[in-house]
Automatic annotation (TrEMBL):
<keyword id="KW-0675">Receptor</keyword>
<dbReference type="InterPro" id="IPR008979">
    <property type="entry name" value="Galactose-bd-like_sf"/>
</dbReference>
<dbReference type="InterPro" id="IPR000719">
    <property type="entry name" value="Prot_kinase_dom"/>
</dbReference>
<dbReference type="InterPro" id="IPR011009">
    <property type="entry name" value="Kinase-like_dom_sf"/>
</dbReference>
<dbReference type="GO" id="GO:0005524">
    <property type="term" value="F:ATP binding"/>
</dbReference>
<protein>
    <recommendedName>
        <fullName>Protein kinase domain-containing protein</fullName>
    </recommendedName>
</protein>
<feature type="compositionally biased region" description="Pro residues">
    <location>
        <begin position="265"/>
        <end position="304"/>
    </location>
</feature>
<feature type="region of interest" description="Disordered">
    <location>
        <begin position="363"/>
        <end position="407"/>
    </location>
</feature>
<dbReference type="GO" id="GO:0004672">
    <property type="term" value="F:protein kinase activity"/>
</dbReference>
<feature type="domain" description="Protein kinase">
    <location>
        <begin position="16"/>
        <end position="288"/>
    </location>
</feature>
<feature type="region of interest" description="Disordered">
    <location>
        <begin position="256"/>
        <end position="337"/>
    </location>
</feature>
<feature type="compositionally biased region" description="Low complexity">
    <location>
        <begin position="319"/>
        <end position="329"/>
    </location>
</feature>
Length: 534
């Protein structure tokens, strides 16, 4: 491998143009780059010539490239045969969990939903024989497209030189720590895992979440404790067990945009000053490389460096909601000039005073016809449009075949998806892979609402987990002519698709664009459409 310096403008494999170095630590560098053939942004990791595990990192990336769960960052390319070894992965724009918690913890229902999605994704990785072993709040990103992304499966363990005799239990602990952080805005793991304040602990054991933050249900608190070995509850053994447990607690649907909204800050009694996290003895061998700069959302984020473990946490973001690329690392900002702040405050006071005087009118307080301000107490907000469950008038099979193939099985048991019973019996035939054996590009059902309606949300019960379930709405019976409302992986229960803004049309399509595995077959239960008449 060449020892030449890699700098912005360098092209790898004749197509990946490096544009901005995001981080440089632990013997590797993370770049934002452009794939000039496909004209898209990608994340590229390059390696120092002395990095001892280049071949292992490239091999792990190739293994991760076979993962199909959309919540796991996709690896596009990995090569160590040329002058410079590299790994190319999906560029993820959004907000890491650590950034969401910089002001306050999440609302418990949303925290449970977020970690349920993460648990499902890690469970899919384990089913493929891969694990993470280094999960922190920097590795979970809520994207600008309104989806969950988990970074670093398979590759982070190599970059940080971590291994475990029980990878499932280690990843359950990592997910449990992230859920603890989401609920409390405190980190119960090693200090170099997060810049969040350390969780309060007694005798090396973190306090239960309910002792740190009010408003957490007993059910969610018990799940966290079982993940982290707090108390006497039976430990959760695998990410799939954690996903199953979270499926049974109240969860709040996630919004369709980055930024999840935070719960009110904890009271001073509940927010103790930061102190070093308890030194626990996990069953892993943590030989970590130097810790990362602020997290970059790539499939292979920079390793965590102990050299920065005592660095001050980043300043909290502004109170306005702002979405930034999860890869970006802004430099330190200069402190504001106190004199300018004082002048601005004085000017604002004058402006507010003049505005209040103008609104009060010049006719005095007794002027009954003066152009004074409107009495807000007499003004009511416009009524919100009512949303009710709508009754479909019919249902038919929907398929986008390739080469004239038609799946006759999808025409059976159609009425079971609108009979009011969750345990419907509609299903496809079994296929050789998640892409329908290349016979179709989508299989599902088309609901005829009888007339155009305004769809607010669609709730779908599916007894399978994995794959990709998609909802479309419009006035055509052709799937490709309908407007896409959303897509997500089924979770073995009910999933909700919110139309924001509301979608209008006579037809509602619910179909699989990728099949869940084991066997590769799609199944649907009840489908409920909520909205208003068009």
């Amino acid at each position: 491998m060449s020892t030449s310096v890699i700098e912005p403008g360098t092209r790898l494999a004749g197509r990946y143009r490096l544009e901005e170095r995001i981080s440089d630590s632990g013997g590797s560098s993370l770049w934002k780059a452009i794939d000039e053939i496909l004209a898209r942004a990608v994340a590229v990791r390059t390696f120092d010539p002395e990095f001892p595990r280049i071949a292992e990192a490239v091999t792990s990336a190739r293994s991760a490239s076979r993962l199909t769960d959309p919540r796991l960052t996709q690896v596009f390319d990995a090569d160590d045969s040329g002058e410079s070894a590299y790994i190319v992965s999906e560029w993820v724009a959004g907000e890491p969990l650590e950034g969401m918690l910089s002001k306050a913890p999440l609302e418990p229902g949303r925290a449970a939903t977020l970690l349920y999605e993460a648990s499902e994704a890690i469970s899919a990785a384990h089913a493929a024989g891969l694990s993470h072993l280094c999960l922190t709040p920097r590795d979970l990103v809520w994207t600008t497209g309104g989806t969950v992304k988990i970074l670093g499966v398979a590759t982070d363990a190599v970059l940080c030189d971590r291994s475990s005799d029980d990878s499932a239990a280690e990843d359950v602990r990592g997910l449990g720590r992230m859920l603890y952080a989401a609920l409390t805005a405190h980190w119960p793991g090693d200090e170099d895992g997060s810049a969040l304040p350390a969780a309060p602990a007694s005798d090396g054991v973190p306090h239960a979440p309910r002792q740190v933050q009010a408003g957490i249900s007993h059910g969610v608190d018990s799940i966290v404790c079982r993940c982290l070995g707090i108390g006497t509850g039976e430990p959760l053994a695998t990410p799939a067990d954690l996903a199953k447990a979270l499926r049974g607690v109240p969860r709040t649907p996630l919004p369709l945009f980055a930024g999840l909204g935070n719960a009110p800050p904890a009271s001073p009694r509940q927010t103790p000053p930061r102190r070093p996290a308890p030194q626990q003895a996990p069953p892993t061998q943590p030989h970590r490389q130097p810790a990362p700069e602020p997290p970059a959302a790539s499939h292979v984020p920079p390793p965590r460096a102990r050299a920065q473990r005592h660095a001050s946490p980043p300043p909290p973001p502004s109170t306005s909601t702002r979405t930034t690329p999860a890869h970006s690392h802004g430099g330190p900002k200069r402190p504001a000039n106190p004199a300018l702040i004082g002048i601005a405050a004085a000017a604002l006071t004058v402006i507010v005073g003049l505005g209040a005087w103008a609104l009060s009118g010049t006719g005095g307080d007794d002027d009954p016809k003066g152009g004074g301000a409107t009495d807000n107490s007499q003004t009511s907000a416009p009524p919100k449009p009512s949303v009710a469950k709508l009754a479909p008038q019919g249902v038919s099979p929907a398929e986008r075949p390739v080469g004239g193939h038609v799946d006759g099985a999808i025409g059976k048991n159609l009425a079971s998806v609108i009979d009011g019973k969750p345990s419907g019996s509609w299903e496809t035939q079994s296929y050789a892979d998640s892409d329908f054996g290349r016979y179709s590009k989508g299989l599902g059902v088309l609901l005829d609402m009888g007339k155009p309606v305004k769809v607010a949300n669609v709730k779908v019960y599916s007894p399978v987990s994995g794959g990709v379930l998609q909802v479309r709405v419009g006035d055509s019976q052709s799937p490709t002519d309908l407007k896409r409302v959303g897509e997500q992986a089924p979770n073995g229960g009910e999933v909700a698709f919110a139309a924001n803004p509301q979608a209008t049309g006579r037809y509602v399509l619910v179909w699989f664009t990728k099949l869940p595995g084991g066997p590769f077959k799609g199944r649907l239960g009840e489908i409920a459409v909520y909205g208003a008449a068009g």
